[in-house]
């Protein structure tokens, strides 16, 4: 029963629709009715501006981190659920949030939050990599997919050079699959040359 509660709590944390709530509470705007209609940080940036986009990005990251660290709470210490499993459950909640009719974001920021909570050097590497690749591509979607591949390669290298962490490889692979699947429409626009580009970097 404790494990079920822990998993449900991770899902609920992931389900918090940051973009929707920030938009409605502070801007009287439902971001689902603007831009791409997505609840993620990228559409928040486009619809509500940099300040709101940054807040939502941080909130979405921290959802993954909070879920990953749930097992450290005294009440859950004896459950022995792997933190990466909790993180993945939060990502599923982010993509299919119970608080927003199961239509959520594209898993990027919350997935990053998992790595922040589990192996922060990877997170730092990916943040730097994200900014560099975004500077080159000007497309958040393409950058996100490239970083998913980089994260997977890093986890494999980490396995052979530092620690035999097979769960990390498995979860990063699953995250990469999520990210590519959630960006299906973006991939079509990239091929067609119609994918929106950012101008602030």
Task: Kindly describe this structure.
The protein has helices at 2-15, 18-27, 41-48, 50-68, 83-95, 108-118, 120-137, 140-161, 166-182, 184-192. It has 201 residues and is mainly α. Helix 6 runs antiparallel to helix 7 (120-137). The longest helix is centred in the last third of the chain and has 22 residues, at 140-161. It starts with a helix and ends in a 9-residue tail after the last helix.
Approximate helicity band: over 70%
Can you summarize the main beta sheet?
Answer: none
Q: Estimate the strand proportion.
A: under 5%
Mean pLDDT over all positions: 93
Summarize the structure.
The chain is mostly helical.
Question: What descriptors fit this protein?
Answer:
single chain, 201 residues, mainly alpha, 10 helices
Task: Describe the secondary structure blueprint for this structure.
Blueprint: H1 2-15, H2 18-27, H3 41-48, H4 50-68, H5 83-95, H6 108-118, H7 120-137, H8 140-161, H9 166-182, H10 184-192
Helix pairs in contact: 1-4, 1-5, 2-3, 2-4, 3-4, 4-5, 4-6, 5-6, 5-9, 6-7, 7-8, 8-9
């Amino acid at each position: 029963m404790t494990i079920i509660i822990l998993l449900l709590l991770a899902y609920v944390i992931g389900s918090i629709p940051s973009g929707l709530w920030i938009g409605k509470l502070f801007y009287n705007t439902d971001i689902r009715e603007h831009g791409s209609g997505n609840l993620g940080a990228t559409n928040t940036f486009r619809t509500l501006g940099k300040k709101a986009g940054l807040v939502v990005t941080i909130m979405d990251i921290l959802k993954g981190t909070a879920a990953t660290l749930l097992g450290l709470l005294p009440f859950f210490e004896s459950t022995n659920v792997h933190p990466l499993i909790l993180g993945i459950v939060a990502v599923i909640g982010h993509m299919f949030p119970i608080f927003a009719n199961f239509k959520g974001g594209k898993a990027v920021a919350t997935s990053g939050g998992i790595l922040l909570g589990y192996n922060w050097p990877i997170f730092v590497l990916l943040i730097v990599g994200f900014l560099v690749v975004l500077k080159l591509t000007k497309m958040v979607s393409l950058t996100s997919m490239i970083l998913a591949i980089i994260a997977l390669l890093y986890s494999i290298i980490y396995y052979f050079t530092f620690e035999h962490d097979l769960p990390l490889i498995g979860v990063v692979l699953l995250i990469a699959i999520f990210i590519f699947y959630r960006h299906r429409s973006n991939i079509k626009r990239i091929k067609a040359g119609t994918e929106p580009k950012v101008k602030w970097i």
